[in-house]
Each structure stands twice: as structure tokens, then as C-alpha cells.
Amino acid sequence: MTDTQEIFLKCLRQFVNSGRNNAEVNCQNVKCQEENSIHEISIHESLIDDKEIDFNEFDLLMRWHHVLPIVVEVLSDSVDYEKIPDELWKKWKKESRRLVTIQFQKNYTCMELCEKMKKAGIRFCVIKGIQCQVLYKKPELRTSKDMDILVNEQDLEVCNDFLVDEGFKPKNILDERAYESSYYNPNNNVVIDVHRSLLPIGDNIILENLLKATGEVNTFRYEGHCFAGLEDTVLLFYLISHAEKHFIISGFGIRQLLDILMVAREKKNNIKWDCLFEMVEKTGMSLFVKAMFQIGDRYLGFSEEYRLVCDHIGECVDCGNLLWDILDAGSFGKTSTGRMHSVHVTKGKAAGESRIKIVRKALFPDIVYMRRQFSYVDRHPWLLPVSFWHRIIRYLKEKGDGGVKNGSLQFAKKRSSILKQYGIKKLKSS
């Protein structure tokens, strides 16, 4: 881990632990894996100290992981902002204010929209987004680009008509092959993701059955508005499963990890832990979950939650490679072309497919993937063969001297070994 990455994690650690009992926070030990030593983290100490910080790398980390307002808030309350070049600090402050303002506006629009949907009789619940935001001391600093809602199957058509009437434009068609559809409103730049299921249908039957079995929603309040959200055990298991889905594809970022850890902390007394860990075992995610919570313990101040995991499913494996992948991936693994192009290899490896099948899928992905890449396929499915050639030509142009191709192969090889290390052997189809 670089000094810059360590400072980045310290900022996040201070944010999620600020306002908590000092004896609970200040005396927690953080084991620095690279140095094999123990460091005491105080919420009052300098975060940068005398370490060498690469401000370009630090800027990328904040943007990749969509946590710039959080980090700027922490640095503003410390002496460290004086060590940041003045022009850069002004730029970060201005960008932070802009992002927080946009988040306020989006939240307000979404809250009004939810009230209208309830009055229209549309049955839905909020997933991720606002339900995770409210767990933070300053929710507006936890920004998100869209709002995700899970809509009752019988209400999908009504929901579509409602959103279109409200000025939203569907970005893709929600049919039996797609588990979600995005709607964009050009008037306010709000994006609504409408889900017919929590994950791609068939990816995690246990999660789907759990949702059907509980049939429960938790109501929560934000800015005077009441929302229906997932039941706490379902929410945590869903966030873990959602992170694993992106881990298999091209990676997930630190904000997703923070959401998981915050739900575990803030909803600790409501979560059915025996049930949760039984499902984690059945879906083969035990090593993955242990590693995530070990990162939380070592670097982010979630020691109590890590001990809870250890009590149920034993001590953890080495979390170093997972931490590397999370920091490098950024939000949903879109930090490099090589990483994104490695998706077909890692998905195939995780599913236990043969090399021939992996190559075939890499050259000719399924229609759901191609719809996301080329909008004309969504409108005219019969143009799918054309899109394959379009994709190949675009890829050849992008790779130039072979850098992207080599990068994809290197990422695929490294990430495949990481998936294997944490026991991610196949997609959860049963």
C-alpha cells in the first residue's frame, strides 16, 4: 500500500467513526499489513503527517470511489488542508460543494417522486442509495448517481408509464431478459433504476427466496419523508451479493464496502446473524465476507463487526489482494479499459467454463451486454450481428500498440487468481 492510499483510508476511517465514543474509536488498533506493525489512530491526529503524498493519485482515488465530499470534509476539520497546494484545495472545495448541492437536489426530487408513486398505488421499495445514506452522520456527503427501486412485478408497466409521464426517458427496455431498466430525466439529470429483481435473475436463488420468504420491508425516514426499504438482513445480504457480482465482473469500490460495514454496524441488533452467515456459507462467500470485514477492522475502524464475523465463521484469510482490487477498481471497476475488457474472462473463470467457451463469449457477448454497449441493439435487436463487428473494430482501434489487449490479459490473469483465493468459483445459480 502506498502512503497516499494509507492517508486516503485514514480519511474514510475518521469520517465513519467521527462522533462515536472516543474510547471506542481512539483506542482501536489498526494493523498495517505491509509493515506488520500496530498503529494507534486518533481522530485528532494529523492524517498526512510527514508522509509523501501524491496529490494526483489522491485526487484519482477520491474521484474513482466517489468520496470526494467525504474526504474534503475530513481534511477541512484537520490541520492537513494547509499541506495541500492552495489551488488544488480550492478546486476540491468547490467540487465538493457542487457535488453536495447536486445530491441535495437529486434527493429532494427523488423524495417527491416517491411520494407521487405511493399516491399512484405503485408498490415499490428503495434499495441501496438513500437507505444507505441515512446511516452516515452526514448523509449528503455519501453521494450517488441514481436511485434504485425494487418494483412489484405486477406494477412494472404502470411504473414505466408513470415515469415517462414525469419526463423520464427509458435507457433500455425492461423485459424478461433484463432485471433492471434505467430511466433518465433530462430536465433534472435524475436517474432512476427500476429493478424487477435484486440481482440478474438466477444469479443468487437464495437471495431471491429470502426476499420472497420475508416479504418484509423496513420503513425509514429522511428529511421528513418516509420510505419503504429492504428488511435489514435482506439488505446486508443483498449488498454483499451485489458487491460479489461486481467483484466477479470487474471489481467494486470502497464506497460499496463502507455501505456494507455501516449496515452491519448500525443495524447490528436487527440483523438475523445466524441466518445471514448460513446464507453466506451456502453461496460460497465466506472467504469473501471475512476478507471484507478484515479490511474494515484493519483500516476503517470496524473492529467490533469483524469480531462478530470471526465468532460466526472463523478467522479471516489475508485481505491484501482484495484491498488492492478494491482500491484499484474504483466504483464498479471502471478505472481502466484493461480492467473492463477482462470481464468475460473473469466471469467465465468464476463460472468454471472451458477456455473455448470463454473466448467465444469474449468475442460474442450476450445480447444483454451488447444492449448496454450499443443503444441501437436495444432499439433494434436484429442489429446484434452488426454490433459484434462494431465492437471488434472499436476494440482494435482502442488497443493501438497492443496496450489495452495486454492490459486486459494481465488484469484477467491477476483477477482470476484473486477470485480463486477468495473462493469465488462459480456464479450463484443455485
Give the helix proportion (percent range): 55-70%
Name the structural class. Answer: alpha+beta
Could you name the CATH topology of the domain at 108-230? Beta Polymerase, domain 2
Please, what is the average pLDDT?
Answer: 81
Name the assembly state.
single chain
Rg? 22 Å
Quantity of strands, as a count: 9
Poorly predicted regions are 22-44, 400-404
What would CATH call the architecture of the domain at 108-230? 2-Layer Sandwich
In CATH's first tier, which class of the domain at 108-230 applies? Alpha Beta
What would you note in describing this structure?
The chain has 430 residues and is α+β, with helices and mostly antiparallel strands. Among the domains are: 108-230, Beta Polymerase, domain 2, CATH 3.30.460; 336-421, no CATH class. 57% of the residues lie in helices and 10% in strands. It has helices at 3-17, 22-25, 55-64, 68-76, 86-119, 129-133, 156-165, 205-214, 232-249, 254-266, 273-282, 286-300, 303-313, 320-329, 337-341, 343-350, 355-363, 367-373, 375-379, 384-399, 403-421, and strands spanning 29-32, 37-40, 124-127, 147-151, 169-170, 180-185, 190-195, 217-222, 225-230. Strands 3-4-7-6-5 form a 5-stranded mixed β-sheet. It has a two-stranded antiparallel sheet with strand order 1-2. Strand 1 (29-32) and strand 2 form a beta hairpin. Helix 12 packs antiparallel against helix 13 and helix 16 packs parallel to helix 21. The longest helix has 34 residues, at 86-119. The chain is globular and about 60 Å long. The model is unreliable at 22-44 and 400-404 (pLDDT under 50).
